[in-house]
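Bit of a strange request maybe. I'm writing a small parser for structure token strings and I need a real example to test against, not something I typed by hand. Could someone generate the tokens for this chain?
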Amino acid sequence: MSTPALSLSRQMLRRRPVNGAPIPTGGTNHLRRRLGGFRLTMFGVGSTVGTGIFFVFPVAVPQAGPAVVVSFIIAGAAAGLAAICYAELASAVPISGSAYSYSYATLGEFMAVVVGACLLLEYGVSTAAVSVGWSQYLNKLSLNVFGFSVPPAISSAPWDSEGGLVNLPAIVLVAICAALLIGGTSESAKVNAVMVVIKLGVLLMFAVIASTAFRANHFTDFAPFGFSGISWAAGTIFFSYVGLDAVSTAGEEAKDPQHTIPRAIIAALLIVTGVYVIVAVAAMGSQPWQDFQGQSAGLAVIVDHITGNRLGSTVLAVGAVISIFSVTLVTMYCQTRILFAMGRDGLLPATFAKVNPRTATPATNTMIVAVVAAALAGLVPLQRLAETVSIGALTAFIVVSVAVVVLRVREPDLPRGFKVPGYPITPILSVAVCGWIMCSLHRYTWIVFAGWLVVALVFYLVWGRRHSALNGG
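Reply from user aminoacidic:
Good idea to test on real output. This should exercise your parser:
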């Protein structure tokens, strides 16, 4: 009786070699290195700057007052701790799969399955939920520009408050993103880069318009609720930074990944934090902080009040639509690459690791993701389920931070294009901050998360461990 238990424990603890692993029958290993530093940086920015910055102020400002500017900096620093841990691992283990592959190479197969499940939850639910949000804002833009909106019957899911039949715009968005991804990674990266530049331009346009109404006295009562309010708001704002890990999923499609991926992660973090702080300062200076309470679509309302017309808010709506499109594209990309890595390692069917020889993309994998995401986005109201996106990301952040320490101890001479500054304090702080934020999540989120992990682990025990490429057969 002891031998099977020992065999299972060894299976769960075995590690994927840092420099490669066997490829299961039916899988391939031919992703092309086409992405340079700029496009990788735009991947990070594209997956991070989403609806959060457009709509976070009515929630965060009442918690912190004008000191919400400090909250943005603290949240950026917290995300930065995890980001630079990702940067070191990406330079040492430059393969597809992000935190999944890093944990497989450092903590073993069992933890890799856990992290892989977390990432699939994060990206899968995010793709569907964000698509639903895109449908809503596209509808609003259509009403502003053309004077009509898409009927609720085909723009909202069954069991939603609108009582629709299917969310057709959300399905269309998923289909467009899938077509772009199947067409080629380089082409998708170009489209994403254009959309990122546009949405950053829209946010900077807001900052310029808001600065014309800037009043220094709006900062007089700077921190009305003290540091507790600042830290509480930082926890809320943190979720506007989730997505910086997207860069590391492109480990096998990046040129000179040991250097370009760390640089892209750090560059994306600096760009996102800089833009967020500029927008926050402009917003807080343009109106009293008390006015943010319950102010739906706050940035658009501020622009309307300053300009006296709806042109500015319409442009902001365009920015929100483009922003969500970009996020959907990148999150779908990330999910397909996680599935590719797990399929190649034998923990999922090898179909997920097959690459189209013409486009050098996992086309079948992408179509499966598109069908599932479209079904969720079109038929299921995901408002509550979308909260699980954050817990998946935070779990991955913690595992990556721990993996940095483990890999330093286990393989100190492994070449690293980037090393975490302040080691080992930095990864320890990253674990502490992410853990603190996780503790504030709703009990319902933890229940959904635990249920999903149970499903993933049962699949591993029944199927995955028997087909792992590390079995040698």
